[in-house]
Write a structure and sequence with these properties.
Layout: E1 13-16, H1 28-36, E2 39-42, H2 45-54, E3 61-63, H3 69-81, E4 86-89, H4 101-110, E5 115-118, H5 123-131, E6 138-143, H6 148-158, E7 164-169, H7 174-185, E8 189-194, E9 202-207, H8 208-217, E10 224-228, H9 233-252
Parallel strand pairs: 1-4, 1-5, 2-3, 2-4, 6-7
Antiparallel strand pairs: 7-10, 8-9, 8-10
Helix pairs in contact: 3-4, 6-7, 7-8
Length: 253
């Protein structure tokens, strides 16, 4: 038994999903693990402490973030190999998705450590199912490159992707990203979801040009997910025809 009266957890790395905004979205199982883990490795210890305090839990918190992952990950692995349990949490949502959790998870797998997922909230899935766009097949791209040239090249690569696209973006880059998407991908249907599960939650739907125009005058705040319609059949045919024409010209030369 732990000092909080919980059953001790077997040594393992527990991937614990936590709320992306509304604290009521935490699962009973997640709370049980967070209360019983020997160590809670948190991307943002302040946010995790608020969650634990809200539910009357008090555990040993250790900062694990992008800047210290190369130092902390080996130590956490050794902690587990020595017989302790470690719960990994991000600053919100499911660890390992567009955050440093993947680095620790991969290292733990390589050392033969048991990985125990504790499912729960994920901003990408919440935005996708509320977007009104097809959910049966989708591609998650995480964050696009911040540099304009690299971002443009990545969008060019995605131009013929037929599946619905799920992309994270920072508020200060949203306007320019939507404009660039409309230029490269065409004026397809999209949705912008921000502040999901929070007081000022907003899900705005429309064409890329409509969304770009809206956010030119309306400042975007909070965490943002962009959902994009996949490439339409006509667009795919046009791109393939263009590639065929280029190849034909090259052959003739």
């Amino acid at each position: 038994m732990t000092d909080s009266g919980q059953e001790r957890l077997p040594p393992a790395l527990y991937i614990v999903s936590t709320p992306i905004g509304n604290l009521k979205d935490v699962t009973f199982r997640a709370l049980d693990v967070l209360r019983a883990a020997d160590v809670v490795a948190a991307e943002d210890t302040r946010r995790t402490r608020i969650l634990l305090a809200h539910y009357g839990a008090s555990r040993r918190l250790l900062s694990y973030r992008d800047r210290n992952k190369e130092v902390r990950a080996p130590k956490l692995v050794q902690t587990i190999l020595a017989g302790s349990s470690v719960a990994l949490v991000s600053d919100g949502g499911t660890p390992g998705i567009s955050d440093p959790g993947y680095y620790l998870i991969r290292m733990a797998v390589q050392r033969g450590i048991d990985i125990v997922p504790i499912p729960g909230p994920t901003a990408a899935i919440a935005a996708l199912v509320a977007s009104g766009l097809p959910c049966d097949r989708f591609a998650f791209e995480g964050f696009l490159p911040s540099r304009p040239g690299r971002k443009r090249r990545r969008l060019e690569e995605l131009r013929t992707e037929p599946r619905t696209l799920v992309i994270y973006e920072a508020p200060h880059r949203l306007k320019s990203t939507l404009v660039l998407m409309a230029q490269i991908l065409g004026d397809r249907s999209a949705a912008v979801a921000r502040e999901l599960t929070k007081v000022f939650e907003e899900i705005r739907r429309g064409s890329l040009s409509e969304l770009a125009a809206y956010y030119q005058t309306e400042p975007a705040r909070g965490e943002i997910v962009i959902i994009l319609e996949g490439a339409r059949q006509q667009a795919l045919s046009d791109v393939r025809q263009h590639k065929g024409d280029v190849a034909s010209c090259s052959h003739e030369e």
